[in-house]
């Protein structure tokens, strides 16, 4: 804590005429990077957290927001969603999640992120303050983006893009070494390696420029290790085959996106230090004969084995509408073996770290984005209310949620009807 | 009522008697119901879902399948099983008023706009693993409904989760008959992949066809009633019995209760108007997404609201669905309940109830009623189950913490005073099942020399990435919503399921 105060001092000294400071006071602050702080203070400056601690001196002229009796938490980081890319899953014109064809490496989702999607305010009201929005079409699906949930255009909202390349491991390849889809992926990656070698030769003045090819070019950051591969595999056999395949590809950064079967591969994942996005625990057990809580217990098994993981919600166009339920998947995991503090980190700090934005988000620490929420209790509990939200240091008007608007409007009507004896 | 009995007799198909019933040998199946026990749960927090509210440090006494008493310091019947409820919470069993979780052979009979003559009770899958899994989530009774393909759908079946019993034995005898209706996008085929469109294609058409069928059924009933009886009957030819008309006529007799899938306010007002013109009361609106927009009208009419709490925007007609809907409907005096419509969601209905607290500040005890007493009343079984009160069926759940907490788990679920789910026994069974599985595998390998030890893995048909399930266990109303709780289906072309590898 002393460190934080020290940093604050430095900041104040260096800023001189500091920008507007916002001070959240009186709440129990849960930095997640350390122990909870009773009657803590969070200072926000230039969109970032400048200090967190107890008994901090509040700079003169700071806007003091008294949140006594409440709790301050970092916002949830959704590790895998279609937010911004879909509106109504049954209306084709509103859906931009799924490009046709099998090779879509050049697709970048941030360019279609609808900053005024009605889904965004509704999910911000549920504490989803950052989304990793991902493409969903084909074998090589394109690159994803980590986005803030608030802004006047997608350009303002990009936190990290490209955040990674997404490849769906063909299920059939688990038991068929000659699988055509996997061959296709291999061919494209091989072609991309050649293309980039040729390009480097060209840039060094040693060769003619290779023919333009968007798909191959887009795989550059993956092959050079600048962005991770998000590799999708559902069941145990496929996960193992996918991991073996990825090893052969010698990619520097690999993130496995998998279903609850991933628990059966936990030891290997821990050994090989491969992070996991556990994509939804609110599912049936993979096999009919498995225990009823097989999926609910998956995160706890990963934790016990020492795997680094984030919990997601299965995503999809329909899932995006209720991305706000993400924290409950973490909470339910805690009912079945995952420690509560790990559950909270699995949808905040660990998600941010796995997405490569751990220095920006996921905990309340000086220097990080002031993207946080004030609640009346444990944010993984369904009964808890989220009272106020800040995104990048700006308080967000929760009344922008369409659901709140309709609620207020019709509550007024029903009250009036009841008063009039109708 | 007499007419209805005749009608039932006419319809009754031969269903194998319970005595002949033998469940398949599969993991988790049991061959006989657990014994009915005298039980006393001591010192628990008891959520009665009744006027007594929440009782701290209280006892629940059960005997002969019924609740004998709820209160403090109660005497137990001789030989009663004593359960230490310290730190535990007890609620009534959860009643799910909208389920497709145990139906064989398809949820939707989508050929005709009215299929009033088809019945769920003929196609109950008593071996659906969903029954056991939902018991593990505290569910003790569900309403099995047809899908939403038809304006006038089929007849529903309310069952108790008597795992291991025959289809016939599952049927909850106290439940009055009911029938599924559907309004809006689904009956008008908005999202169907369909080369042969069917009338109607609009909401006005849906209204028209319901009104017309009601008129026809009224005429049919009049004609039947006017038939002479006794000696005179010999001289006339009776009209040919029409099973569809019989069913719809019994709606008009207020025997078959309407439970209508509905999203938008306009279509609900429409159906209320038709019902009132024929002098009947709608049982419930199912899903009832915009119920909050006509809540007082629903309350005046007497229709219950049985809804999702937070599903929205998956179809255009779900644009204005809000999670505050249950709170607002309850405030307006509507008998409000929450349902699953989904075999996975059904396993955690307590958290759906918790959302009613989150959205609109419903009192937690009232929220518990939304998954117990209220759906029981909506289904006409409120005098038998859904509350913890002396005289009611011993359908109850023991939780290891606050029933609306995300950190709580079901420890035991009892139906009719029989313990159908016990987490401790479940944990023990896992080991035995795994041993058995390995032994069987070894036998297969030895006899066939098959080196693919998980040869079943690649044969999942309709289940997406799920394996070994029966079709009935994954069945759902394909016209209702994009199901993403465990599998993908072909009709949902634009949905994506990130969990899945490319298939």
Structural class of chain B: alpha/beta
What's the number of helices of chain B?
13
The greatest interface between two protein chains, and residues involved on each side, is: A-B, 84 and 81 residues
Multimeric state of these chains?
heterodimer
What about the largest sheet of chain A? 8 strands, mixed
Give the SSE string of chain A: HEEEEEEHEEHEHHHEHEHEHEHHHHEEEH
In total, how many domains does the architecture of chain A comprise?
Answer: 2
Helix content of chain A: 25-40%
Order of helices and strands of chain B: HEEEEEEHEEEHEHHEHEHEHEHHHEEEHH
How would you sum up the global shape of chain B? globular
Explain what this protein looks like in three dimensions.
Chain A has 422 residues and is α/β, with parallel strands linked by helices. Chain A has helices spanning 2-15, 119-124, 154-157, 180-203, 214-218, 220-223, 236-249, 266-271, 298-305, 316-321, 326-335, 340-345, 349-354, 402-419; strands at residues 21-29, 37-45, 48-54, 63-66, 71-74, 76-81, 128-133, 140-148, 158-168, 229-233, 254-258, 276-279, 309-312, 372-375, 386-391, 394-396. In chain A, the strands form 2 sheets. In chain A, strands 1, 2, 3, 4, 5, 14, 15 and 16 form an 8-stranded mixed β-sheet that branches. An 8-stranded mixed β-sheet of chain A has the order 6-7-8-9-10-11-12-13. In chain A, 58% of the residues are buried. The model of chain A is unreliable at 8-17 (pLDDT under 50). Chain B is of the alpha/beta class. Chain B has a domain at 2-18 and 94-386: Metal-dependent hydrolases (TIM Barrel), CATH 3.20.20. Chain B has helices spanning 2-11, 129-135, 167-170, 203-226, 243-252, 265-277, 295-301, 325-331, 349-358, 364-369, 373-378, 423-448, 471-474; strands spanning 39-47, 54-63, 66-71, 81-84, 89-92, 94-99, 139-144, 152-155, 157-160, 178-182, 257-262, 284-287, 304-307, 336-338, 396-399, 410-415, 418-422. In chain B, the strands form 3 sheets. In chain B, strands 1, 2, 3, 4, 5, 15, 16 and 17 form an 8-stranded mixed β-sheet that branches. Chain B has a 6-stranded mixed β-sheet with strand order 8-10-11-12-13-14. In chain B, strands 6-7-9 form a 3-stranded mixed β-sheet. In chain B, a hairpin with a 2-residue loop joins strand 2 (54-63) and strand 3. The interface between A and B is large, with 84 and 81 residues.
